[in-house]
Design brief:
By secondary structure, this protein is α+β, with helices and mostly antiparallel strands. The chain contains four helices and five strands. The termini are far apart.
């Protein structure tokens, strides 16, 4: 990885994770809470056993993160992991940090008992879709000839 190391975030990292998530949303013009609200929420989330945030850090500090949740599923004798967000600062992309975050996330959730990982990606985000496909993710289940979709409804 490009002079960065991974580590699991804890409640003391809530401000950093909140700021990185705000940076992510700002870059992609996504509405949502501000960094302080994210930080307040992460201060609780990062203490939960079903939440994992990996931080990528270099000598300048945190440069990216992966945020995952885990939940039970009747489809496996284990958990289902959802990669909620993966972000690397724009000037550090294409240096392997995203790959290290993804692979580190997969290893970490497997160690916590996950048997499958889900990732939602916007259809127009072709580069991100290619990135995940290079790492073995697919929108087509084995044996099927059609793509899976994700439906959302804000409550």
């Amino acid at each position: 990885m490009a002079n960065a190391v991974l580590r699991a975030a804890g409640p003391d990292d809530a401000d950093v994770v909140g700021r990185l998530l705000q940076d992510f949303n700002d870059e992609f013009d996504t509405s949502g809470p501000d960094a302080d609200t994210f930080a307040r929420r992460f201060s609780t989330l990062l203490d939960r056993p079903d939440v994992l945030v990996l931080l990528a850090e270099n000598s300048a500090g945190p440069v990216g993160f992966a945020y995952l949740t885990l939940r039970p599923t009747p489809y496996y004798d284990g958990l289902l992991a959802q990669l909620e967000e993966l972000y690397v600062q724009p000037d550090l992309r294409d240096q392997g940090i995203g790959t290290e975050l993804l692979l580190g996330s997969i290893d970490a959730v497997q160690q916590r008992g996950a048997c499958e990982v889900h990732i939602n990606v916007d259809e127009v985000d072709v580069d991100t879709r290619r990135f995940y496909e290079r790492h073995g993710f697919s929108t087509i289940q084995p044996g099927a000839d059609y793509r899976m979709l994700c439906y959302l409804r804000e409550l």
